[in-house]
Design goal:
This protein has a single domain, classed as Methylamine Dehydrogenase, Chain H. The model has no long low-confidence stretch (mean pLDDT 94). It is built from no helices and 30 strands. By secondary structure, it is mainly β. A 4-stranded antiparallel sheet has the order 1-30-29-28, with no helix packed on it. Strand 4 and strand 5 form a beta hairpin.
Length: 362
């Protein structure tokens, strides 16, 4: 049947059942391959490389690691090296060469005392955008930044304050941004109590904080390698927040808009389309994938009564939605090379490859 509309559609083109739990998936840059990371039933680490061949996927390489793997990123690796950095349940941060998955890691550090909830990378893909670094967060409430050229200690660490030392807040998510030259770089962090913090790596200080009143499952800048434009904060209780990051007011911080989903489900993540930073896929606890588009306001900056500049938030529009699973969509990744191609994982022990049509119409 021919679709006569101009509305994008979310289509599943491949569903691969897994006999393991997959926690994260990532496309290998400049290829038709993706990496699946997770846990075998015996609580060892799953690390597999798949090749997409038409509508079929073929297992290309796999390796079983000592501890279950929670998260991964290619962000600190070059396009020719394509080394995957993984955070595991034992608190180790390891970087593996995809061509030698069973060899010892090319980088390894005990990043946290227990599970690494999330890892993000920056600076590896192109010169002029800062050092190749990884940022990790954990149950200990710590956010730590690692230079892959230095193996011993983090180059920056943001620990819980004295009041939280006894029972630190669990830091669930981190993301790099504002990395538009060799000096500037920021880290966003989201916590289980709704705190969102922005750390400036140039000054090594906390730059901004707010509380969104719900546990923060994911944070993401629309692009890492530009001056801060906007970022999303995904939360428990079926909502996410879009913040305009161009203007920071001294008292009010960043302007934001809140989107409440019609179905009551945790928003597990929000992933910006690489080819259009105003388009985002949102994955939820009821197995839905929903495509949103951000609309900028007529004026992105106004002056408060005292004459100080303050930002103006835009609006978000639901473009398409599709139920793909009975369980939460826990991981998702857009192909950086082919617009609309995506891979996702859910807790029904399946990995799906999908495509979103007509993105060029947005």
């Amino acid at each position: 049947m021919v679709d006569a509309t101009n509305t994008p559609q979310i289509l599943e083109i491949m569903n691969k059942p897994m006999n393991a739990t997959v926690y994260d998936v990532k496309w290998v840059p400049s290829s038709a391959r993706f990496v699946a990371m997770g846990s075998w039933p015996r609580n060892t680490g799953l690390l597999q490389v798949y090749d997409l061949n038409g509508t079929q996927v073929e297992l290309q390489a796999e390796s079983e690691k000592k501890a279950s793997i929670k998260c991964g990123t290619f962000g600190a690796s070059g396009l020719t090296d394509r080394k995957i950095a993984c955070g595991d349940f034992a608190g180790k941060l390891c970087m593996y060469d995809l061509e030698r998955l069973n060899s010892p890691p090319v980088y390894e550090v005990q990043a946290h005392a227990s599970i690494i909830n999330q890892v993000d990378g920056a600076g590896g893909q192109a010169k002029g955008y800062g050092a190749p670094e990884l940022v990790t967060c954990g149950r200990d409430g710590c956010v730590r930044v690692w230079d892959v050229r230095q193996k011993d200690a983090p180059v920056a660490a943001f620990e819980p304050g004295p009041a939280d030392k006894e029972k630190p807040r669990d830091c669930w998510t981190v993301a790099f941004g504002n990395s538009y030259n060799d000096e500037e770089r920021c880290v966003l962090a989201g916590y289980d109590n709704g705190d969102v913090k922005m750390f400036d790596l140039r000054t090594n200080k906390e730059r901004w904080t707010t509380n969104v009143k719900n546990g923060v499952c994911a944070v993401s800048f629309d692009r890492k390698d530009i001056e801060m434009n906007k970022f999303l904060v995904a939360c428990l209780e079926s909502q996410f927040h879009a913040f305009d990051a161009r203007t920071q007011h001294a008292k009010k911080g960043f302007a934001s808009v809140t989107e409440k989903l019609t179905q009551g489900a945790t928003v597990w993540g929000a992933w910006h389309l690489p080819q259009n930073r105003d388009v985002t896929m949102v994955g939820t606890g009821d197995g839905n994938c929903s495509l949103y588009r951000y609309h900028y306001p007529d004026q992105r900056r106004v002056k408060d009564p005292d004459g100080n500049p303050m930002g103006v938030a835009g609006t978000v529009e639901l473009v398409a939605t599709k139920n793909l699973s009975t369980q939460p969509i826990c991981a998702f990744d857009w192909s950086p090379d082919k617009e609309g191609l995506c891979v996702m994982a859910s807790f029904d022990q399946a990995v799906r490859v999908g495509v979103v049509t007509k993105l060029n119409k947005l």
